[in-house]
Each structure stands twice: as structure tokens, then as C-alpha cells.
From TrEMBL:
<protein>
    <submittedName>
        <fullName>Hemolymph lipopolysaccharide-binding protein</fullName>
    </submittedName>
</protein>
<dbReference type="InterPro" id="IPR001304">
    <property type="entry name" value="C-type_lectin-like"/>
</dbReference>
<feature type="domain" description="C-type lectin">
    <location>
        <begin position="39"/>
        <end position="186"/>
    </location>
</feature>
<dbReference type="InterPro" id="IPR016187">
    <property type="entry name" value="CTDL_fold"/>
</dbReference>
<keyword id="KW-0732">Signal</keyword>
<feature type="signal peptide">
    <location>
        <begin position="1"/>
        <end position="20"/>
    </location>
</feature>
<dbReference type="InterPro" id="IPR016186">
    <property type="entry name" value="C-type_lectin-like/link_sf"/>
</dbReference>
Length: 190
């Protein structure tokens, strides 16, 4: 009886294996078609070049079954940087606009570091609930991500700076959520 049972399990397992593979392949192809880049061992990443607010970026990623990227290691930080540079986004004129100078003026203090205008993208952390308590979009404390490398001068930790960003020199920073920046969506390895 035991033997029959284990045979049955074996048959089921191999059936699953046969069926899983094509599904993964199909999803893989669909992701590549929709602009994701596959970094084997890490996952799938898509740089959305059209600048958006942090909230908009988060929603857009969710709508495609992804998350606004959470940086978990120096090597993942390297992936984000490579992705950014490969898209030719070394300079972004698009969001050097009036809105930003408005924000800079309103931040009314010379202590705050300047609002970044290039080389910066939204990523998945924030302190929208409790000032200074940084959580990922999955609700974990930022310390659990494994990559907490603040850009010099950051975190600013005030009510204006509540959303997470990534500087392509491989730092994280807190910036105003309304600031329109490119962002990266991330999907775990299939
Ligand atoms: Ca990640
Ligand atoms: Ca804050």
C-alpha cells in the first residue's frame, strides 16, 4: 500500500513538473515582451522611464503583478544601476521643471540636501505612517531588506520627505512622494 502511494506521488510530481515548465516559459516570455529584463538568480526588473509620483509608480507596478522594487543587496543595487544606465537615463531633463524648484523653495531650509534631479528613481519604501519609521511596500522594516545605505545628508526625516528613492551611485534616500521620477518594478524569479 505504501509503495502504491509513493508511486502515485511520484507520478503526480512528474506530471506537475511537466506542466509547470511551459507555464513559467510562457510567463517569462510575456514579461520580456512587456519590457522586463531578466537577471538570472535575481528576478525580473522593468525600468519605467516615464516619470511618475511614488504612489503612481507603486500602483502601476502592482497592476502588472510586480512591486515597486525593494533593494535587498549590493548586487541588486547594481542591477538597478545597470538598468538605469542601459536605458540611457544618465541625464533626465524631463523632471527638471518648475514643480521641483517649487518644492526646493518650499523646503525652506538650507539644511536640507538639494532635491535630486537626475540619477534617481522611486523604490519601494516609505515612512508615510510614522515619521522616521521606514517600511517597505511589503510592510517590513527597512532594516530587514539587507540594504540600508543612505546617501550622505539622508534621511531628511521630515513630513515632506516620506517616500523612498534610489540614487544610481547606489544609495537610498527619502524624497517628497509627489516628485515625478522614473521607477523600477520588480518580480521575483519564477
Ligand atoms: Ca528585491
Ligand atoms: Ca518622512
Amino acid at each position: 500500500m505504501e509503495k502504491i502511494w509513493s508511486c502515485l506521488m511520484l507520478v503526480l510530481a512528474s506530471l506537475c513538473a511537466v506542466h509547470m515548465k511551459p507555464l513559467d516559459d510562457e510567463r517569462h516570455r510575456a514579461l520580456i515582451r512587456s519590457g522586463y529584463v531578466h537577471y538570472p538568480g535575481a528576478g525580473y526588473y522593468r525600468l519605467a522611464k516615464k516619470p511618475a509620483s511614488w504612489g503612481e509608480g507603486r500602483r502601476n507596478c502592482q497592476q502588472e503583478g510586480a512591486i515597486l522594487s525593494i533593494v535587498n543587496s549590493p548586487s541588486e543595487a547594481g542591477i538597478l544601476k545597470a538598468l538605469y544606465l542601459s536605458e540611457g537615463l544618465t541625464k533626465l531633463e524631463k523632471y527638471e521643471n518648475d514643480d521641483i524648484s517649487e518644492i526646493s523653495r518650499d523646503s525652506n531650509s538650507t539644511e536640507n540636501p538639494p532635491i535630486p534631479t537626475s540619477g534617481t528613481i522611486h523604490i519601494g519604501f516609505h515612512d508615510l505612517f510614522v515619521e522616521g519609521e521606514y517600511l517597505t511596500v511589503r510592510g517590513e522594516p527597512i532594516i530587514a531588506t539587507g540594504f540600508v545605505r543612505w546617501k550622505p545628508g539622508y534621511p531628511v526625516s521630515d513630513d515632506l520627505h516620506n517616500c523612498g528613492a534610489f540614487d544610481t551611485n547606489q544609495f537610498i534616500l527619502d524624497i517628497p512622494c509627489e516628485l515625478e521620477l522614473p521607477y523600477v518594478c520588480e518580480i521575483s524569479e519564477l
